[in-house]
Amino acid sequence: MTETRIQQLGKIAAELRAFKESPLYEYRVENDYLPVIGTGSPDAAIMIIGEAPGEHEAETGQPFVGAAGRVLDELLASIGLQREDVYITNIVKDRPPKNRDPRTVEVELYAPFLERQIAIIQPKVIATLGRFSMEFILDLLDMPELGQKIGELHGKQLEGKADYGTVTVVPLYHPASGFYNRSLRAAMDEDIRALAPFAG
Ligand code: URA
Description:
Blueprint: H1 5-17, H2 25-30, E1 39-40, E2 46-50, H3 55-60, H4 67-78, E3 87-90, H5 104-121, E4 125-129, H6 131-140, H7 150-153, E5 158-162, E6 165-172, H8 182-191
Parallel strand pairs: 2-3, 2-4, 4-6
Antiparallel strand pairs: 1-3, 5-6
Helix pairs in contact: 1-5
The structure holds uracil (URA).
């Protein structure tokens, strides 16, 4: 019998909980943190990918539950979506100490889990949050836009090819970028509309 998406995602979760090979595992255990695997619908048409969990996320095991998460919720609500309607995850599934950028070795270790999540959920659209996630996905899908800046690509619908078929990639600014920069927040309000055609 073929496994359901929920079963396949459950396997990933179990592997990540026991992921002692990661240099971030010890930090997780020392701080009583949880791995942040992903939330939302396994059948979602829209997959949203951030960089790595922050403190609130590692405390709760849920992606984007801090201040940036509130902005993300507002943006989704503006096109009639709740987080249950989409699937939200990160590239790196454990919190890097003091929210430093994930290291290359960490990205390489966690990337196969994200690739499996994408292959299981088979989203019609991948929205990347921030430059880091955008570059990761453009590289993963071997897209010609790799090398262009987020300032040029934000809010655009780009065409990528995944193993399961065509996937639209929409680079978005990271929701935390709008905190101190009102013009970025205005761009974010506009850019999220690129996901609206997939919201139904
Ligand atoms: N920033 C991210 O990139 N991911 C989270 O889950 C939270 C904040």
